[in-house]
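Technical appendix A lists one of the benchmark inputs used to test multi-chain prediction within the project. The record comprises two sequence entries:
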Amino acid sequence: MPDDRIEKRIELKAPVSRVWRALTDYREFGLWFRVRLDGAFVPGQVSTGWITYPGYEHMKWEAVVQKMEPERLFSFTWHPYAVDPKMDYSKEPPTLVEFRLEATKAGTLLTVTESGFDKVPAGRRPEALRMNERGWTEQLRSIESHVAQTS
Amino acid sequence: MSPKRRSKPVRRQVPAAASVFAALGDQTRLSLVGKLCRGRPSSISQLAEGSRLTRQAITKHLRVLERAGIVHSLRSGRENLFEFDPKPIESIKDYLNLVSAQWDQALTRLKSFVED
């Protein structure tokens, strides 16, 4: 399923309030995400820190917190591939990471999406490609269908 | 998040990924790719056949595709031919699969973190 958007759904046996804390308390977030953050998450502000994954401690974490809607939505933008100190990534489009929480009988349904790997304009449905029978165009079609879904 | 995505192969692929998506984000260019991916290298005149686009417009779009590595130009006699290269699109697939696998790992850690 090649796509330019990643979506994950996971059922967690913990109440929404617990999951919300694990996501938005910067210390708790750091424990499972493996990053040591300098301070709390604040919408509109840059979050900085250092990766704590063994062997990768020299790598910086930087994200911009977007939304914090209690027990419902937490999102940030970042450059997940911004690793080369000599490169200027500020002009690259960032990806958007969104955590959505829903209460279920068992606990919490968490949906994570990461999007924005593309900047493909919305709603393109090129006839030329749809009519092409070559196998590889499946890949392009998945990009198109993504674009259609997110437009 | 596992830092594997920060390993070298990914680092090389990703700036390309952004430019590949940007290059494909245009209906005219997608239709040019649609023509070229039928397998045979084509000249600008061939690509202009049955199209309302001028040769200049086609050239401009081909340059964008070329910079993203989706299309290569080659010389045939006095003519410039353009051929399709599927590799950039395949490398995007690999990159996204890697990022996807890393989310799986991070969420597995989150799961044991909140359920313990």
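The two ends of chain B are 19 Å apart (CA to CA). Chain B touches chain A at residues 1-3, 5-6, 10-11, 14-15, 17-18, 21-22, 24-27, 30-31, 33-35, 37-39, 86, 89-90, 92-93, 96-97, 99-100, 103-104, 106-107, 109-111, 113-115 (CB under 8 Å). Comparable benchmark entries are summarised in Table A2.
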